[in-house]
Amino acid sequence: MKPTAAPASASGPPAVRRASKEAKWVLLSLPMVVTLALVFVVPIACLIYLSFFSSTGPATVGDQPTLENYRHFFTDPFYFRILFNTFWLGATVVVCCLVIGYPTSYFLARTRSRWRGMLLFLVVAPLLVSAVVRNIGWFPILSDSGLVNWLLLKSGLVSQPLPLINNTTGVVIGLVHALLPFMILTLTTVIQRIEPDLEEAAASLGAGPVRTFAHVLLPLSLPGVIGGSLLVFTMAIAAYTTPVIMGGGRILVMSTFIGQQFRTVLDYALGATSAAVLMLLAGALSLLALRFGAQRTEMAR
Amino acid sequence: MRSAVVTTVLGATFVFLLAPIVVVVISSFSAVSVLSFPPQSFTTRWYTEIDPGYYRALYVSLVVATITVVVAVMVGVPGALALARGRFPGCSTLNAICLSPLMVPALVMGVAAFQFSLVIWDQFRLTLGGTIAGLVVGHLTFAIPFVVRAVLAGHTRFDFSLEEAAQNLGANPARTFFHVTLPILRPGIVSGAIFAFLISLDEVPIALFMGGGDATTLPVKIFTAMEISFGGDILAVASVIVIVSLVLMLILDRIVGLERLFATKH
User: Fold this and answer.
1) Do A31 and B81 touch (CB under 8 A)?
2) Which residues of A fall within a CB distance of 8 Å from B18?
3) CA–CA min distance B81, chain A (Å)
4) Is residue B12 part of a domain?
5) Do A139 and B35 touch (CB under 8 A)?
6) Contacts of A23 in chain B (CB under 8 A)
């Protein structure tokens, strides 16, 4: 039997056929579009709408649209402080992730060890354990009578336990732990694409390890470094659970501030304004991160 | 010398990555104070003192995650196919819109969903906040994009000649879809669904603002308990979660392969 033209060819001229075919796709995507509009677009629109009204008391807003909240947010030193704290936290987490993540990524990218698969698994494994649970695990390690202080006191390095949790230090440790896998995945992919020959060439021309790193490896892996940093920064400033738990409820960054406005202060309008600002910030940064080829896996939220 | 340095640095990194997970399990058996480490003596007391509310919360979590994933697959798979194959106007815009929820911080999504539930109550007298339905609404915002993205990723290497072959052999469109198209896309659908399920089980901010009362998920229950006080029963619950996660991870690794699961790019 000879292959014949599809039977559909009888149903009309090509343009009509094409249109009906496209109509089928539109119809198929309709349930998804409607659902997303309902659960995503409308709620976000509600939030942005709310941010243009000013608060008139707990959980109530006025009826005149105003830019008051935004003016407030960008002129009041109190919010400057929160923004500064947020950026400072994000930057600290990024630097820690880079310093800890780069050597591991380099190893994972270059090694031919049969343990490589196992090690990659161990990098991503923490992501599959609940974030809340991982935070809980830090308490017996970082508390005053916890593991780290026990070691420090035992060895005589300190005479008083160091405050490592329920403060910014705790939040940084928690966030670095949560976000390091993303940094390592991004850096490993980028370093893998750099030819090992280039390093060997540099070495054979007399460059030491430091010079090879500074003049060959680092410039070539820079896109990954930037992409990974942007990704980690975005996730660090957007995180809510870890700053609340590891900060003992005492850390004021944008996310915890937003949570406060909706949970205890009940200034919904101001909360909505801060949430809109955070959303724009995170959105712009993650778009930028994608341009630099950040490895955003499914768990990156 | 050089390999000793490498081993130390790598070892320290992996100890850091795994420490809290290991410590959760050990500390949950600590008899005197769960905040002290290493433990002085051991007990299984905390496991018998787990508040029944945690079981209820686990049930809520599982129900929410299951409904969320089922809905997400049902609307997401046809939607993703349309995005992959359709050439209709606005197709690429739609593609961007479908994936954009993943760029919105979960906290922002949570307060937006909360605000949405207030509006729905004002306008239609429908209760969304504090109900399973409300939690599903909140979780669909990431579940649908996950499924869409996973299907789109799997679709890039789609061999259309298989569908043509089925049709030439006389299969109608429905039959072609269920016996050819769907099996080819299945790995993508499965990995998207697994991730949506796992995140739904684990997610705090959305469930915190949308849930409450009878609709409190397990992570939210633990989160709010931590805000009040830190006790042995919390560690016991956490330790159970770690062990269950490890078992699930091993099963997942067997079935899908974790490395492949994580290799999904944008």
Assistant:
1) no
2) 122, 125-126
3) 8
4) no
5) yes
6) 88
CATH assignment of the domain containing B146: 1.10.3720.10
Residues A151 and A22 in one domain: no
- pLDDT tens digits, residue range B35-90? 888 888 888 888 888 888 899 999 999 999 999 999 999 999 999 988 888 887 87
Domain holding B82, by residue range, is: 50-228
B86 with A238: Cβ contact below 8 A: no
Which residue in B10, B20, B266 is closest to A134 by CB distance? Answer: B20
Give the single-character DSSP code of B169.
T
With beta carbons under 8 A apart, name residues in chain A contacting B258: 121, 124-125, 128
Q: What is the pLDDT of residue B258?
A: 61
Cβ of A132 within 8 Å of Cβ of B222? The answer is yes
Burial B185-194 (b: 16+ CB within 10 A, else e): bebbbbbbbb
Give domain status of residue A300, yes or no.
no
The first and second tokens of residue B213, run together, are 């009362």
Across the interface, which of B35, B94, B138 has its CB nearest the CB of A140? B35
Q: How many domains is chain A built from? A: 2
Lowest mean pLDDT among A145-154, B65-74, B149-158, B212-221: B149-158
Dihedral-angle region of residue B212 (phi above 0 means left; psi in -120 to 50 means alpha; beta otherwise): left
Flag whether B97 is in a domain: yes
Residues in a beta bridge with A53: A65
Does residue A14 carry a pLDDT above 70? no
Decide if A3 is inside a domain: no
Contacts of B27 (CB under 8 A, 6+ apart): A137, A140, B34, B37, B39, B235, B239
What are φ and ψ of residue B258, in 5° steps?
-65, -35
Asked if the structure places residue A147 within a domain, the reply is yes
State whether A41 and A154 are in the same domain: no
Q: Is A255 on the interface with B (CB under 8 A)?
A: yes
- Pick B239 or B250 by higher pLDDT: B239
Task: Provide the domain count of chain B.
Answer: 1
- Return the residue in B109, B111, B152 with the most chain A beta carbons within 10 A, the one to mutate for interface testing: B111
* C-alpha torsion angle, residues B191, B67, B62, B214 (rounded to 10): 150
Residue A43 structural domain: 12-65
Verdict on whether the full-model pTM lies above 0.80: yes
Q: Which of A119, A130, A275 sits opposite B111 (nearest CB)?
A: A275
The ipTM is: 0.87
Q: Are residues A92 and A206 located together in one domain of the fold? A: yes
